[in-house]
């Protein structure tokens, strides 16, 4: 028998081991603690998944993200839920998640939280929507619990001047003028919410497209790495 078993052949024991490792990492991520994906991957292959490759374990982790996204649950941002999951694998992952107390939410439920709204819309976009939705005629106003931080205007001004009217991400000129200055947004490379500093060594002036890319794209980690290489005043925190 081949040692390289097919990807669809995972036993429920193997799925369980993967889901348990995933949920452990997810708990760490949600509490803002660090973990090393590669180390967790290796530990799994040294214990419960000796016949699996690194890539195969990584793929399974992405599958778990996909299933969690469809279930309207938070998932690990480092495991992109981009790839399709076979229906047998999906059923097995759902079964194990439910054993572990993770129940599906309702991705159609309205919310004022931008992040949850995005996640729900993405989950729904991956399903078939039969009819156009009714929507909300008079959306209720919600009070925001989002933290805001006091920031230094000098940092903002300095970083924008350093950029010299060109995006420090893509190099394109600022898309328009505001207050007679080139419009560039100042982004904190390590977010303030993750204890990043408001200093010029942690801030870049970028165009709105690159800014969205930093926060929302599939390749945001790689793009952030590129900023560190490109913008010499940045110091990783
Ligand atoms: Zn740009
Ligand atoms: Zn930003």
* Overall pLDDT score: 89
Radius of gyration: 21 Å
Number of structurally distinct domains: 2
Please tally the helical runs, counting DSSP H or I stretches of 4 or more residues: 8
Please indicate the percent range of residues in DSSP E strands (runs of 2 or more).
5-15%
Bound ligands, each once = zinc ion
Structural class: mainly alpha
Concise synopsis of the structure shown:
The protein has 237 residues and is mainly α.
Question: How would you describe this structure to a colleague?
Answer:
With 237 residues, the protein is mainly α. The chain has 2 domains: 7-99, no CATH class; 153-230, DNA Binding (I), subunit A. It is 43% helix and 5% strand. The chain is built from 8 helices and 4 strands; from the N terminus they run H-H-H-H-H-H-E-E-E-E-H-H. The strands form 2 sheets. A two-stranded antiparallel ribbon has the order 1-2. The protein has a two-stranded antiparallel ribbon with strand order 3-4. A hairpin with a 2-residue loop joins strand 1 and strand 2 (181-182). Helix 1 packs across helix 3 and helix 3 (54-70) packs across helix 4 (87-99). The radius of gyration is 21 Å and the shape is globular. The N and C termini lie far apart (49 Å). The mean pLDDT is 89. The site of one zinc ion has 5 residues, from strand 3 and helix 7. Residues 167, 169-170, 172, 206-207, 209-210 line the site of one zinc ion (ZN).
């Amino acid at each position: 028998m081949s040692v390289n078993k097919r990807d669809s052949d995972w036993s429920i024991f193997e799925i369980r081991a993967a889901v348990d490792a995933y949920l452990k990492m997810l708990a760490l991520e949600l509490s803002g603690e660090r973990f090393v994906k590669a180390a967790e991957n290796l530990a799994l292959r040294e214990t419960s998944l000796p016949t699996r490759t690194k890539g195969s374990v990584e793929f399974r982790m992405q599958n778990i993200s996909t299933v969690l996204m469809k279930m309207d649950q938070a998932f690990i941002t480092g495991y992109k839920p981009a790839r399709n999951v076979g229906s047998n694998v999906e059923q097995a992952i759902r079964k194990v998640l439910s054993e572990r107390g993770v129940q599906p939410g309702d991705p159609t439920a309205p919310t004022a939280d931008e992040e949850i709204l995005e996640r729900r819309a993405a989950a729904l976009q991956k399903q078939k929507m039969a009819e156009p939705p009714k929507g909300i005629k008079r959306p209720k106003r919600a009070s925001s619990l989002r933290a805001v931080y006091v920031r230094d205007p000098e940092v903002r001004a300095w970083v924008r001047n350093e950029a010299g009217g060109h995006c420090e991400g893509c190099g394109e000129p600022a898309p328009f003028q505001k207050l007679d200055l080139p419009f560039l947004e100042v982004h904190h490379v390590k977010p303030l919410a993750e204890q990043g500093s408001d200093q010029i060594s942690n801030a870049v002036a970028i165009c709105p497209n690159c800014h969205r890319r930093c926060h929302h794209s599939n390749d945001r980690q790689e793009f952030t790495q590129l900023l560190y290489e490109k913008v010499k005043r940045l110091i990783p925190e």
